[in-house]
Amino acid sequence: MEGAKLTRRGLLVGIGAVGGAGAMYAAMGALGLAPSEQDKEFAAPRQGDFSLRGKGAAKVVILGAGVAGLIAAYELGKAGYDCTLLEAGSRAGGRNLTLRGGDRLTELNGPAQDVKFGEGVYFNAGPGRIAPWMVTLDYCRELGIPIETFINNNAAAYVHTNGQTVRARTARADMYGYVAELLAKATNLGALDRTITKADQETLLDFLRRFGDLGPKLEYEGSDRRGFTKFPAIGGGTPVEAPGTLHQILAAGTGRSIIGDFGYEQATPMFQPVGGMDAIVVKLKEAVGEDRIKTGAKVTKITTLADGVEIAHTGGVVKADYCIAALPPHILAKIPHNLGAQITTALATPAPVAAGKIGLEYGRRWWELEDRVYGGVTETDLDITHIWYPSHGYHSERGLLVGYYNTEHEAELYGSLSPEDRRNRALTQGKKIHGEKYRQNVLASASIAWHRQEHIQGGWVRWPSFDSSFTLLQRPAGRVYFAGDWLTHLIAWQAGAMESARGAVTQLHQRVLQSP
Amino acid sequence: MEGAKLTRRGLLVGIGAVGGAGAMYAAMGALGLAPSEQDKEFAAPRQGDFSLRGKGAAKVVILGAGVAGLIAAYELGKAGYDCTLLEAGSRAGGRNLTLRGGDRLTELNGPAQDVKFGEGVYFNAGPGRIAPWMVTLDYCRELGIPIETFINNNAAAYVHTNGQTVRARTARADMYGYVAELLAKATNLGALDRTITKADQETLLDFLRRFGDLGPKLEYEGSDRRGFTKFPAIGGGTPVEAPGTLHQILAAGTGRSIIGDFGYEQATPMFQPVGGMDAIVVKLKEAVGEDRIKTGAKVTKITTLADGVEIAHTGGVVKADYCIAALPPHILAKIPHNLGAQITTALATPAPVAAGKIGLEYGRRWWELEDRVYGGVTETDLDITHIWYPSHGYHSERGLLVGYYNTEHEAELYGSLSPEDRRNRALTQGKKIHGEKYRQNVLASASIAWHRQEHIQGGWVRWPSFDSSFTLLQRPAGRVYFAGDWLTHLIAWQAGAMESARGAVTQLHQRVLQSP
């Protein structure tokens, strides 16, 4: 699952990305794995890799049938490895979870929810969007999963801050307009004379005029970019109310909300599988073979031996040549093992982060019909944080909004409520933006608190820093490899799980090929 | 067809939108049509409108079966009007033209093109995108035409200016970074002390830090928003080359290219009918009745009479109670009529604007596979102006790029070339951005010069100002009404044609209902 917009950057900055990567490459170098082999040009293991070496593919037990576990099994399977996946829960996919009518969602210390969405309606309770550079899209292509555009940025969606609601296009036009005016003014006052040449100042002013849609005196006087209550047609249209003063615009506090797609992770455009994110799980399960996945098998002990591994679980014991542990670190940390004290400490280092979402199904797509909002995200400073509008099924009768997608404190707050109270609270908050219609005609809802999902217990994790614990777990402990988004710089993205699984597979396969 | 991004705003500003609208509303007021009736809440004529008045629906002849003509016939048809459409060309749709394999495209003073695109490949040679607030989407909904997202803004697409090519995300991060740094610097130098309070300066600086992704000293030191040659995965990624100096960034001239979706017409997200824009024409033709459309019927004389109209065309004469002339003004201006000298002058006032496009079909979607560009637009200062990547059919084998979409001088230049030379020139230009692969594996191409289409002769028109000629033609001349995007503030958009047709229909219907 990708992070909430407003906190994402803080997450990445907080973990000191650059130093960690260098340290990790050094560690990989010690294993004879150059970065380019490791994850720049991943080569899936092939049956042919064994033909000249007179050895067979090994037996591998994979702990966890989330995306990392499934990708590991899928890639190893290409070369004929004999993989078994042990999954504590009742289904594969992990956080890649799409809820539909007829599903039942249980949680720790809370009532079960029977999902009652109508035919064809789905709720991506976990990951919901894919950036075009991510390896996730390659797997969609390889597995024949059709994709469509996910709208992550919508000028017609709203920004709700400090009790006021404006369209994103209006908030953006006003901030850019005043920023441009101020810099033009400062330039003309000579404030940049010691910084840039007069010729560059002219080029800058020309840009600022366009950037802010400034008037002839280089002042911001509003702009048709702000939008209309009635858009131009036969007549010239009726603009929305004139902009406030600079002071009012700054006080409105919309600034944070209009930069949501500036980062490389969330930049426009993004994508989603047609029909639900779990198409990826469905296709991976098919490719791996459902008979290889043992659900309800909770791991109780991990033992690495000189010639193999032994994994005890609630249904028995599995012996294999190697193990890939693709569980969340805070779950792994609780399982007895003989991998050493450093591993125990390392596994306990990253802290789980709470995350929650609610899907609200309406009998009528009022956001399209009345608000002309087709897809995208409304940003708020309320505890719901975001509202997502669906990027598919436009103009159909029913539709599903994500009524909150929050993390940390707000996610814990909602998670502590009953499903009914979560829904009521979400509706009360959304009403502040959309009015009374937000509470009308809600056909069904389902909410998830990822930190209360029994075998997952978090939306994702946060490392205090990408330190030696991080790099330690990127190497095998005996015959046990680790995998998951939590071992990458793509935490909280499926792509992280996939990249990590590919890394573990590469290391394991190299070792098998090189072993005597 | 919507205008080219870089010139669009100039077009609208140049015609003095606000004054014209006021004058037009005054004219409409004289007709007893308040703006709210006229086009805020359009009510389609219904059969029931006649029931209490003891009169029948009239006979209407519509000149031109483009989008305006089709919508007029469709809406009048709802109340039982007997409509006949006279179309000079061989097909309905006007500028709404989608080319597919097997089509043949002729042009004035040029060779015909036999279109050879593969199965399922299409080229929207006219309009290609729809803003969510436009009435075009309402017609898609009403007519049951499925829509999908059109990507108009892509951070991964390129900006090519002054011989250099960078990703749009890089160009944007650098411009925003330096703008933020400069304004932060000026603020801290006290340049704004007389403009805004210290407290507001703090709020501003907080925004600038985020907006520009500034470092701790409020200086722009590059940003991961600029993108990566290798995106983060197991490692932290390899950023693209560090940004140039402010002088270099300004000299690169990317500023105009990164504001393309700021306006209300082109803001993200936009939409397109699934399978080609002409789905709108297909559905309208079905609804209107194909037997009502006489193709190959070029109008030769328009006569308004006391009790009806008489339209001479190349296949005969049509008599009717009313006429809606939905042809381009510069075409209408050449047809003899008895509507008076003022009408002749008014019709000759708007000037046609040249516009051209080429569709390039490739056997391989290298832009997705190699460049990770899924949909969107590359902006250039070359004579091709834009390159569009397809927003549909992702991951399929073949795909079609729009290799140029240009207007005015550039469109005339390409239009004057043979189809083969247009293609060669487009490939040579595109190679500057994408390299040699741009010229390889091109399976087929088709190009259109709208100013050389026999019965259209322009991409759209430009009014010197929204003056009395504009408002004159929004009223009927005798029993002749005019319609087309050229009579609205949505010139060059299908929505303009639709809104104008609705306006003419409303006026005509009111008159019929009120006539003795």
Protein model, in words:
- The structure is a homodimer.
- Chain A is about 35% helix and about 20% strand.
- By secondary structure, chain A is of the alpha+beta class.
- In chain A, the strands form 9 sheets. A 5-stranded parallel beta sheet of chain A has the order 13-2-1-17-25, covered by helices on one side. Chain A has a 4-stranded mixed beta sheet with strand order 9-8-20-21. In chain A, strands 14-15-16 form a 3-stranded antiparallel beta sheet, with no helix packed on it.
- The first copy, chain A, is globular.
- The two termini of chain A are about 40 Å apart.
- Residues about 1-40 of chain A have low confidence and may be disordered.
- The interface between A and B is large, with 101 and 101 residues.
- Chains A, B: This is Flavin monoamine oxidase family protein.
- Chains A, B: Keywords: Membrane, Transmembrane, Transmembrane helix.
- Chains A, B: InterPro entries: Amino_oxidase, FAD/NAD-bd_sf, Flavin_monoamine_oxidase, TAT_signal.
- Chains A, B: Pfam families: Amino_oxidase (PF01593).
Write the topology of this structure.
Two copies of one chain form a homodimer.
Chain A: H1 5-14, H2 17-30, H3 35-40, E1 59-63, H4 67-77, E2 82-87, E3 98-99, E4 104-107, E5 110-114, E6 123-124, H5 135-143, E7 147-150, E8 158-161, E9 164-167, H6 168-188, H7 198-212, E10 228-230, E11 238-239, H8 246-252, E12 270-273, H9 279-288, E13 293-295, E14 299-304, E15 309-313, E16 316-320, E17 322-325, H10 329-332, H11 341-347, E18 351-353, E19 355-362, H12 366-369, E20 376-380, E21 386-389, E22 399-407, H13 408-415, H14 419-434, E23 442-449, E24 460-462, H15 468-473, E25 480-482, H16 494-514
Parallel strand pairs in A: 1-2, 1-17, 2-13, 8-20, 17-25
Antiparallel strand pairs in A: 3-6, 4-5, 7-12, 8-9, 10-11, 14-15, 15-16, 18-24, 19-22, 19-23, 20-21
Helix pairs in contact in A: 4-9, 4-16, 6-7
